[in-house]
Structures are given as structure tokens and as C-alpha cells.
């Protein structure tokens, strides 16, 4: 049996952007690739005590100097029924020691890792012993599922996850978290303790969200169900995908801005030091309570939603993809709050790969169009072709880790194109046009599939009912 090999490689020199960090998706991928390179995590001594599942700072910095992400898929050769083709995509991240150390500090700031000695002062120092947090392990678990990686130690690490992680939607161009009213209200309800199914523990128990103090005296006045600014910021950093204190403060500031919480004791010293923190201060001195509107929202969100169960979406009852479901899916994908809830629903039902593929190809189509309209962009075009091969190996190659459901004709056309070398008489631009056109066909097919299968299920999701009605989707 003959065997051919198709290899696509790309190397990226990691450079800090204006706010001194990579985009959040790159930060997650870099952390996950680093953690994979450090496995298995073994015990290390901290003050004469062996701490499990830890690693040394020096090992992390050394491994970050040359990280490689490799994906391989073995598939039938489209041109030879008896042959096989191995398609391999390799992406290399290169950086110097100073950048690697700075990146490790960003992992600390994002709460992906923490010092094994338990000190609150979390500065990434050489000679230190570190371990992944619950949040970091969840990020790594998502990465392994996305890339079809099997790690023997993963089951041990999963036992260290102590709660769900809320994925925050971001602007695709600026990477800034969406803080519109509807998205902020979803995050707020999770903070208070209302989970994605409308279930809620008692306010003082902190069953899902932050722990509140039943009674607190401030200036001879008693307040009920209060909490500190630091506890809000800590919860957001530990339980959502925000990557630093600044993002947590921005989200919490919008809790105040949208009248969900109100201050009962401001930290004037912090306010004077940081002028942008007039509405919210992330300190133990700053005390907040639920506003009347916030209380109403929590009670509404936690009330019984049984009436929505068992309903079917009339637009999909006939079976086929109609314009109504397509229109609803377009609305869902354009609305940050609905997209957040839709993504959660897909993840819970183990079918998030369709949305992930759709979003990644969206970027390919947009970038390809921009490059093809420009001149002297061959390097960028080759980089985009390498990214296209990664997407092919992840979502479209037979047996790929997140294989999406597209028809045989589309898959065969993509296999034919992706497993052959660029022809000598074709320019890079011609090849990019052809690859983009094929991916766009698969992109449209996956959109139709989500409209047919995923939208009707999402419309019956109690956690999304209120927002679906507000957005006019149901």
C-alpha cells in the first residue's frame, strides 16, 4: 500500500500587542500547549511538603521557547484507492526568555496557574513551584477536546475542576469582552448564584456564585446580603474567561452601570488612586448589595421555567431548513448574549464543533477577501493557507478530532485540494481562492445543519428563554 505525506508548517514569532498580551484565544492555546508539554505533572517540594500536579518555573520558560502544535490525519488517497495520505499541520511559536517569562505572568493574571505555596502575592518568579488552577484545567480540557488530544493524566486533572467556567464572548477584531446589557445580566445572574438552568442556591450559601454576608453594619446601619468588591472581582477572574483584573473590573463596573448592584461603602482611597474606578472598586473595603432591579432579575431568572419544556419550535416542525430558522440562527450569531448561551448549549450537548468551525472559517473568508484585494501579500496568503490546513485537519479530514457533518461531495473536494501540492503554474492567490471557495461551501453546509438541528433545541432551552424573547427570536 502506498502512502503519501502532505505537510503544512507555519512559524509565529510571538509579539506583545498594545496591551502587552496576546489575544485571549492565543493566550489559551499557548497555555494549553505549554501544559501539554509539561505533562505528566509530578510532585515537587514546597516547604518540606510534596505538592501534587506541579511544575517548575524554569521548565515552563524553557518549553515556551519553542512550542509546537502538530495535528496529523491519515485518510484514503483521493487519487489512489489502495493508497493513504497523511496530512500534517504544524504551528511553531517562538519567543525569547523575557517574553516567555512575561507570558507566564499573564497566565497567572488570567488565573490559569497559581503558586503552589498558596501565597496571595501572585508574581511569577524563577525558582517557584506552580500548578494549574481549576480554570486552567478547564481551558486545557477544552483544548484537548478541540484538537483530539489524549492525555493519560487528564482524568486526574479533571478531578481538580471545582465548577463550570463561563465563556465570555469577545469582539472578533478588538478582543474586548462584550458588556452590553443582556450579556452583563447573564454574567451577573451566574455571579449571584443562578446557573444556566435557572437553579439557584440561597443567597448566603454561595452555592454557585459568590458568598454573601447576611448582615453587615456600616456607619450604624444594617445592610443585608452584602458582598465586597474584591469577592466580585475574584469570582469573575476565577469563574469566567476574563484574562486579568482590568477585564473583571470592567464587567463589574457595568453591574453598577446597569443598576444591578449598588455601593453601600466606597473605597475612597482606591478611587483617588484609580480615577476610572469610581463606580466599582475591587477591594475588601468597597461593599455592595443587590439593587432592587438586581433582586428582581435574580428572582425572575431563578423562577420555574417549566412552561418552556416540551414546546417545539413550529418553524422546524416540518423538518427541513426553512428561512425562519436560518433567520433565527443569523440573529443568534450576531447577538453576543445569545451566542454565549448558544455556545454553552452546544457544549452541554457535545456538538460545539459546528459553531467553532463556522467561526474559524468566517475569519478565513474575511481575511482571504482582504488579502486578495491587496498586492504583495504572498507571505500572509501562505500563512492563511497554513491556517486552512489546520482547520481541514481539525474539522473536515476523515476521523478528525472535531469532524463536522458535511456531505460526501464537499468532503471529497476538500480532500482532493488539501492533499495535493500547489501546482507549478498556479499562484498562491489562485490556490487561496480555490481553498477559500471550498471552505465557504462547507461553511454554508454547516450553517444549514445548525439551523436544522441546533436552533430548535436551543429555542427550548430554559436558560435562554428570557433573552430569546427579548431578542425577538421566539
UniProtKB/TrEMBL annotation:
SUPFAM superfamilies: Regulator of G-protein signaling, RGS, Winged helix' DNA-binding domain
Region feature Disordered, mapped onto this chain: 1-20, 298-322
Biased composition (Low complexity): 301-316
Pfam families xref list: DEP (PF00610), RGS (PF00615), WHD_Fungal_DR (PF25889)
Matching SMART domains: DEP, RGS
Ranges of residues in domain DEP: 206-292
GO biological process: intracellular signal transduction; negative regulation of signal transduction
Name under which the protein is recorded: Regulator of G protein signaling-like protein
Organismal lineage: Eukaryota, Fungi, Dikarya, Ascomycota, Pezizomycotina
